[in-house]
Structure formats: structure tokens, C-alpha cells
Amino acid sequence: MDTGDPTATDISLTYDEEADQWRARDETRGVTVRASTREAALDALDEAVADDGETDPDVEVDADDPFFTAPTFSSGRSDVSRNVDEYLAEDTYRDKLGSDEGSWVAMSGIEPTPLFVDTGPFYARFDGDDGLHDRATELFERIRTANLLYRPVYTSRYVLAETTRLLVQRVSHEAASAALSAIRNGELFTILTVDEDRSEAACERFGQYDDQTITLVDHLSGVLAEAHDATHILTFDPDDFRTLDLTAVPDDTGDGWVYGLEIESSTGEAPAHRSSFS
User: Fold this and answer.
1) Contacts of 226 (CB under 8 A, 6+ apart)
2) d(Cα 36, Cα 262) in Å, to the nearest integer?
3) How many Cβ atoms sit within 10 Å of the Cβ of residue 162?
4) pTM higher than 0.85, yes or no?
């Protein structure tokens, strides 16, 4: 007999003193929200969980997919994912010195949006100490379930090279190996290669943007995204990609905001607009 009782689930409720916010998370569904009071956080979680169930089975990725079951590791640092280029440059300099210093809600009729994934979110997914780890995990989970309707989801071998390099140098070889295997073997991601024409295009743009600090890898990402009609990029370092005329997810789309409550923020500021499920 149906008693009307809700489905059993594992909910955690914690208080973040630094942010002065309550964090409510449905561990079963992988949905997280934040609010200023316990009651508001729990109410928002109920709404988010109810909305999270409205997904399209044709685009949802299996929860047992290798990327989503891969372990998380620890670097002891909290800001790497939002400062990828700076950390890569720092590590290159240290290596030369020889130093050993340590949505849209998915519903019928809505067209998916192609998405390119930058290094920062991948790094944050696998470094549990990174300040945007929860943010990255939440965004990937919403993309997996098609609660954020992005398909196809692209990245490149160059992004994987940056991700694994940071993980090796900031966390461990084990973390880098796990990340590489999870991304390559997962169902969600299409890993793009760079042919001669696109390599040449990226090099030309690198030369043209001589007043910028945009890396060649970021120019390659821009060229590949353009070639595959991906106008949106999942990144925690949005400024360079805005210069390349890409829409930064989540900062420019509001995909990190659920019912007006911020899940996490890479900049600490509200986005310019919010997605349709806000």
C-alpha cells in the first residue's frame, strides 16, 4: 500500500562558518544547495531534488560511469582549479630550477547545448582539497543526469595533458592516473584531437592576441570548440575564454544557482543571468 512517505535518502547538513551558510546535500542523488538558515537550505534541497528527477533517460549517463565513480585525492591546496595557468607556469619555472619543493531542466523539446570542458573543473573534480571540488562535482553530476542539458561534451588531449600534469605535481601520480582513466573511459566526454589546420589556426590566434596572456592550449580549446559548434565552456577561469567569445559555464549562465541559492561560486559574485530552472 502506498503510504505517501518519501523515498528514503541520506541527507547531510553542515554549517560553513567562513561563508556563514548552511550546506544541505542529498548524498543519494548527489544534489547540494546552500542557504543562510537550516530551514531554507532543507527547503531548497527538497525543491532541487524534486526537480532533479525530471531528466531525459535518452541523454542521462549511467551513475556507474568510470568518471563519476573515480576516487577523489588530496593536494592540501584550495585554489588550483581557478588559477590553472599560474600554477602551470610556476611548476614549469620550478622544474627548470630543479627544485623539489612541495539548465536547463531536461524536458522534451529543449535542444541540448554543446559544451567544451577546460582544465580547472577536471582538476577540481579529483582534488578533494580544492576550493571548488564540491562545485565541480555538483556541475558534472547535473550534466550527467541531464539536469543541465549539455550534449555533446567535448574536451581535448591538451586539456588532459594539463590536468594530469597539475595532478602529478600538486597531488600524486595515482590521482593523475585515475583522472586520465576516468575521463578517457567515461561515456560522457568526447576527446578531440588537433589536426594541422586547427593547430595552425590556434598558433595564428596566439600571435594575434599579443596584448593578452591567453595560453596556446586555451587558444586550441577555442578553435576546437568553434569547430564543433560549442559556444559554451565549463571553466573556473572565465576571463580568457570570454575574450575568445565563449560563454563561461557556470559564471555567465547561472548554472550554479538553484532556486536563487548559490551552490558554490568561483568568483563570489552572482552571474549575469540564471538558467531556466532557477
Assistant:
1) none
2) 10
3) 24
4) no
CATH code of the domain made up of 1-53: 3.30.160
Residue 21 exposure: Cα atoms within 13 Å on the Cβ side: 13
E-strand stretches of the chain: 11-16, 21-26, 31-35, 113-117, 150-156, 189-192, 232-234, 247-249, 257-258, 261-262
| Statement: residue 199 has pLDDT above 80 | yes
Q: CB–CB of 73/172 below 8 Å? A: yes
48, burial (CB in 10 Å: exposed 0-12, middle 13-18, buried 19+): buried
pLDDT digits (tens, 9 = 90+) for 52-70: 545 454 556 777 888 888 8
Helix (H) or strand (E) holding 225: helix 216-227
Residues in the chain: 278
The CATH code of the domain at 57-262 is: 3.40.50.1010
Distances (CA, A) of 155 to 12, 100, 110, 190, 261: 33, 31, 23, 6, 29
Q: Where in the chain is the domain with CATH 3.30.160?
A: 1-53
CA 240 – CA 218 distance, rounded (Å)? 8
Torsion 272-134-9-110 (CA) sign: positive
Q: How confident is the model at residue 191 (pLDDT cuts 50, 70, 90)?
A: very high
Per-residue cell: 243: 575574450
Region(s) of the chain under CATH 3.40.50.1010: 57-262
pLDDT at 169 over 60: yes
